[in-house]
TrEMBL record:
The gene is tcmN1. It is an enzyme of class 2 (transferase). The keyword Transferase applies. Gene3D superfamilies: 1.10.287.1350, Vaccinia Virus protein VP39, Winged helix-like DNA-binding domain superfamily/Winged helix DNA-binding domain. This is Multifunctional cyclase-dehydratase-3-O-methyl transferase TcmN. Keywords: Methyltransferase, S-adenosyl-L-methionine, Transferase. Residues 19-92 form the O-methyltransferase dimerisation domain. It comes from Streptomyces rimosus subsp. rimosus.
Length: 345
């Protein structure tokens, strides 16, 4: 008589099955963020029933949601059936210092679920699919009444992203001797405010769409601690940028099609004096420990705006094509790279 043991599935089979259902993980993260589960769970473990009462959810369904997330180390299930925080789940808390709640919500907004099934079409054509679905280009749609909630999530997600990167940029970007800088498409101005706080002699201009700068960081607005050295200017960097600064910063904005990227950089080169520095900060699809994140973002940019995340060589070529003189490329941190160039005489 011979004994048999269950045959384990090959790792490749298990991996591909998980990938095919990975949308469930993204949906679970969104559900937890939307319900506020991470905020309801304190420092002590709690059972699903207690948490369900706090977030007004069905106890059994919430337990299943938490178990699914625990499989990805977002929350942890204890032997007695209670759940506790992990480093990842704490990032979904509203009060987390380096939180990602709104970044997670932005990455899973309803329009993203509408776009993903059209990825094969975008790969065939090399063009965005958003306009065909929504009747207008992505950023025009984002400023409509229909997209009001998505726009609010977008602004908060961009602020969270800036919180993560502002300190890192301030540590590596030397602004000694710089009198004036422009933060192009700088959102609400978290990076600019951080740099103004570090360099007391620096003057800065926050340049973004009018509706964006109208809601700038309170430190930069009238009456704010930095308002005396800050200027808020509305406009579109693909059309023109403020003139005469010593340094221009473009962080995570050159993600359109190549023509728009080159046009924006040429606008900077035209408006800046000879010798001015142009600093581009981006996360790349190569040379990064976060290639799963950056390549996923690259595909989303293809779908919604026909844009892309860049390779080091690709972005370097676009900088030079715009007429700028590339001086160096160096890492800011584990996921950001800084391209430093100057405006030739």
């Amino acid at each position: 008589m011979t004994s048999t043991s269950p045959t384990a599935l090959p790792p490749a089979v298990m991996r591909l099955r998980e990938l095919a259902l990975s949308a469930a993980c993204a949906a679970a993260v969104r559900a937890a963020a939307s319900l506020g589960v991470a905020d309801a769970l304190g420092d002590e473990p709690a059972d699903a029933g207690t948490l369900a009462k706090a977030v007004r959810a069905d106890a059994d369904a919430l337990e299943r949601l938490l178990r699914a997330l625990a499989a990805y180390d977002v929350f942890s299930e204890l032997p007695d059936g209670r759940f506790e925080h992990t480093d990842a789940s704490r990032l979904l808390r509203e009060d987390a210092p380096r939180g990602l709640r709104y970044s997670a919500l932005w990455a899973t907004e309803p329009w993203t679920w509408a776009l993903w099934p059209h990825l094969a079409d975008a790969v065939r054509t090399g063009r965005e699919e958003f306009t065909a679905l929504y009747g207008t280009e992505f950023f025009d749609w984002l400023h409509t009444a229909e997209a009001r909630e998505s726009a609010e999530v977008f602004d908060k997600a961009m602020t969270q992203s800036s919180v993560l990167s502002a300190k890192a940029i301030a540590e590596v970007l030397d602004l000694d001797g710089v009198g004036a800088m422009v933060d192009i498409a700088g959102g609400q101005g978290m990076v600019l405010a951080t740099l103004l706080e570090k360099y007391p002699a620096l003057r800065g201009t926050l340049f973004d769409l009018p509706k964006v700068v109208a809601d700038a960081d309170p430190r930069l607005r009238e009456g704010g601690a930095l308002a005396g050295r800050a200027q808020l200017v509305g406009g579109d960097c693909r059309q023109s940028v403020p003139e005469g600064a010593d340094l221009y910063l473009l962080k995570n904005i050159l993600e359109w099609d190549d023509e728009s990227t080159v046009r924006t950089l040429r606008n900077v080169a035209k408006s800046a004096p000879a010798g001015a520095r142009v600093v581009v900060v981006e996360n790349l699809v190569d040379g990064s420990p976060e290639t799963r994140f950056t390549t996923a973002m690259d595909l989303m940019l293809l779908l919604n705006v026909g844009g892309k995340k860049h390779t080091k060589a690709g972005l370097s070529a676009l900088v030079e094509q715009a007429g700028l003189q590339l001086e160096e490329v160096r890492a800011v941190n584990s996921y950001l790279h800084m391209f430093v160039s100057t405006v030739p005489a």
